[in-house]
Amino acid sequence: MEQPAATGGNALLVLVGLSVLFLLIVALLGAAKAGGSLLSESNLLYVALIFYAGAGALYMGFGVTGVARYVKFASTATAIGLVANTLAVAHRWYLSGRPPFASIYEMLLSFVWAVAALTLVAEKKFGVKIIGSITMPLAVVCVILMQLLPSEVRPLVPALQSTWLHVHVTLAMLSYATCALSCALAMMFLIQDELKTETFLAWTSAMVSAIYVGIVATRFEKWGGLSVTGWDAKNKADIFLGPGMRLFVTVPDLGWLFVLAAAGAIVPLVLYFVGRSKNDESFFGIANKAVFIGILVQIVVVAAFVLRVRDASYPSPDQDGLFPTSLAASPFLLGGMVTGIFASLLYLMLLWRRADLENMLPSADTLDQVTYKTICIAFPLLTGMIAAGAYWANRTWGSYWSWDPKETWAAITWLVYAGYLHMRITRGWRGRRAAYFAILGFGVVIFTFLGVTYLLPGLHAYA
Amino acid sequence: MSSVLSVPKRIYKTLANLRTGIVLLILVVVFSALGTFILQRPATDPDKLAQAYSPTTLRWLDRLMLTDVFHAWWFMTLLTLLSLAIVLVSIDRFPNAWRFYARPYRKTDSHFRGALPNKVELPIRNADEGLNAAERALKKLGWSVERVADKNEPSLYCERHRFSVMAVYVIHASLLLIFCGGIIDGIFGYSGFMALQRGQQVNQIELRTGGKKQLPFSIKCYGAGQENYADGSPKKWWSSLAVVEAGKEIKTKEIVVNDPLVHEGLRFYQASFGPTGKLDGLKVLATPDGGTAREITVRMNEPFDLDANTNVTLAEYIPDFFIRDNQVFKRSDDPVNPAFRLQVKNKTTGEDAKLWLFPAYGETAQGQKTNYSFAYRDMQMGYFTGLEVSHEPGQWLVWAGCLLMGAGLFVAFYMVHMRLWIAAVPDAKGKLVLWIGGQANKNRDRFEQKFNDVVTTIQTELESASPTARPARKEEPELTLAGVK
User: ipTM for the complex?
Assistant: First the structure.
């Protein structure tokens, strides 16, 4: 693969700096027009988003141009974002008089904070300078999700009025963020461990394919429509037909675009397998070009999705009439799509700048050790989270364990990491297998955190 | 070979194998995940199940017990086998670990010295001087030093946190403790439900598994209620309860969500709260002729003493009334247009006066003449409070297990077993040296720093012990750092 030449590269710094400035000024003007405190939570969160995105852009800019200075600026941007994020948490805490732990929005707020903080710790303490290229996109996806999720400060329902809420959620967010870090470290390890670039290609394409195939499988309607949840703008909530039954509306023709995006992700995957079975490297070159085209398709799809779903009305197959939709009704669809774009961009960064990345990273052995260490921190936190949750459930629901989906998935997460520790300690699993295991572990964590809440019914309905 | 093993021994061998344990663990993970994806009977109502699955699918899911995975015998068997595997693997490995723990390897041999990753040799003049200096240095650094007596090869041994090698057994034991708690609760524990209204006293619960259970005491409810936030969402549910045993009240408590009443191992939780649809009380303003008015609450068929002579009873309540032929009839059960009949009794004369209150048509009561007049203020609907009742005798084992596991994990992950050996031995060229070796069972890079500190301190101590004998040494000690990471 030919690599673009590493330029002096002030251009990107200026560009990112200017866009950060521009967005800040726009935000400032907007806030000034709307009145109210400038240092409100939503403004601060917006600032955090701008700086996290700026940091992400700089990491990616480093990926494209190979200018090492960008990484330093990216780290500074992360730190500024973290300060804004901290202030947002503090403001919300001050307003509600309790820690922000009571809804999925508040937990994401704490989670992003922990992820950003741990990113800086990993940079400074373990010397993994470009860890942010994975954790910052994650932070950006979370903050975008938060922009869409209901964010009002609500009073605590009776079941949540407990000290154990704070213990349980603090431990959960810390352990989840540590798991995110271990996953990022494991990916870095795979880079340093000379895992073939085309293997990354396969994994990236598989992930993006999974996202789009999942969306198409569950949301594709007859004649190429895409079904999304209806949105009740007055009550700021999804429209419900009955308890637990959301009303879906069909956006015409949008489904085809998703099929196209799914195809755009599957093509490189197929090319990879063909190339592997024929032992012909030239297929990987075509696959890389396909990934590039796939990213463009994904961007078009996201743009079309945003334009057509935002503030429009569509018919529903379940009930007569037109029903409004909003991006706020489909936060996780959008989150998944943005994740897909980031994953593909990260792959491009690896493809173009692998040698530079390798120079920036500590040795594979160190990364392997640090991954293990982060899991050694995450696992006791996870244990404490489950124990605190059980004790609290015993005071609220009358039973310390009721096989609720959230509980069960917390236990599954725990067992997966327990498996990792056993394999590592007694079977001497090192390196690649352990890294794959760590990445799988974080996948399970994300499912426990967000997937269970939105896909599976249960008692643990707050978040 | 294997054919020689008897069947129990072979079972033991299979179960006491880490690989079996991992396979069981994977099975538990897979089936628990299935149990969250397939709707489960205890948590879903039958209608929803019938809606979600076709009858054939549902029949098969039921037959395979996949609609109640977490209470299926095969899932229990899996969990039991997993705990058995944990026990047996631990038993299998324990003797070695115990030997290591109980009889630490204090004295080194040349083979061991050669293989150790962290080691340094410092030249010394004689063995005693060297070992004494090392002992002083180590004590300065806070190590407790043991002298290993040997005529030919005197040496020192010290270690820290030896117990941390046993932490893994503590963790597994704690897991078993938790399982035991769960099993005890599965066998001896029960849970159920109890609905109470104000003033009611109940001594039996409806079990989750069906059927009823008699309690050796009864629970009396003095009241229950709901408090709301300004936006109308519930803020608090409470019930004021008392435990009554043999006619005597022995305990009272106002329970709220998150704070149950506990008596004789039974816990009563605030679980639900709702209207009974029945009238609980009627608030009226009672004014005696020529006297001052006061607000009273009268209840169904409970006489309320107005003065020494007179009492009033709420005799009848009609939620939605109409009048025909001067008679009051009921139209519906919705409390939209209520009517109340009050009975005022004069105790001395024995006279009964009948009065009607129709709040929708004016607040004053009308009817037979009495020396009191009544005005409607408010009607209070009855509420029931739903109590979740559970008996979990095994929970203390579970909590003990959790605490033990926390402690075990802390020791296992964060306390490092460090060992140092120091011997006065001849080096490869036959010159007498102070050989210093060290080993840690985890966190090796941190230990390396610690080890270097120890070596530097011993070196300074050696130099201060005989400053004339050893002017600044040119030869640096050979630090072997291989295998550290």
Answer: 0.82
